[in-house]
Amino acid sequence: MNIELNNVDYIYNEDTKNPSYALKNINLTIKKHEIIGLIGQTGSGKSTLVQLLNGLLIPSKGDVIVDGVNTKEKNKRRDIRFKVGLVFQYPENQLFEETVAKDIGFGPRNMGLDDKEIDKRVKSSMEAVGLDFEKISEKSPFELSGGQQRRVAVSGIISMNPKVLVLDELTAGLDPKGRDDIFEEILKLYNNDPELTIVLVSHSMEDVAKYVDRVIVMNKGKVFSDKSTYETFTETDLLSIGLDIPQVSKFMKALRKNGANVRDDIYTVDDAVIELKRYLEAKNE
What we know:
Elements: E1 3-12, E2 20-30, E3 35-39, H1 46-53, E4 61-66, E5 69-70, H2 77-83, E6 84-87, H3 100-110, H4 115-128, H5 133-136, H6 146-158, E7 164-168, H7 176-191, E8 197-201, H8 205-211, E9 214-219, E10 222-228, H9 229-235, H10 247-257, H11 269-284
Parallel strand pairs: 3-8, 3-9, 6-7, 7-8
Antiparallel strand pairs: 1-2, 1-4, 4-5, 9-10
Helix pairs in contact: 3-4, 3-6, 4-6
């Protein structure tokens, strides 16, 4: 399933004396089975853009086409929102039901599914994010840890079987282990579903460098860059728009500048370990 944005503008306060462009002339295609990073400074248009993807916002100009359907078709938006699942920052704040199972089953129930199918989806979506159905399905979600609450919220979106999963600052506020654990489950979900696309909105350059294949960089409501992860972190001048690069990239560049014969186009810790091992072995020969 593809999503196409064609000549899209989004204007806040459009009918007032002080309209404000949040997005200007956006042209993008999001294809099946990609992991895309969406980065940019606060106010760059990221949050507006992701809300356009599932029809929560409608373009002021241009078109957003989801699986061949224009989001401007009001009677089709409900179906679009089942296909494009949006997990907001701190999604645990959206939990409201008395049990975990009821909270996760809320979406499927809204889809008109019967109890048997709802139960099936609740169990499978909990398993997909590493939650034990037998242990916590009847617990209140508010009894759980922050990381578990985050997983319940994600599970509630997954239970609707979306074809695009948009994760807006998914790991904000989690400790490093919690971040790694939830990303591990998300990657399993992606690897087990050849139809699934993931859009990861993040301020963490390390997370983007580690997990995504393609990076869309937003700046002042426009697409500044849309390239592979490698090209983004090795060839794109992110500093010119106030964005940082991964810490490991800074380390490798500084090491090379100080005379070490190492690659300076590295942006993940795993690749840095391999390169440093090569360098030390060559140095000791």
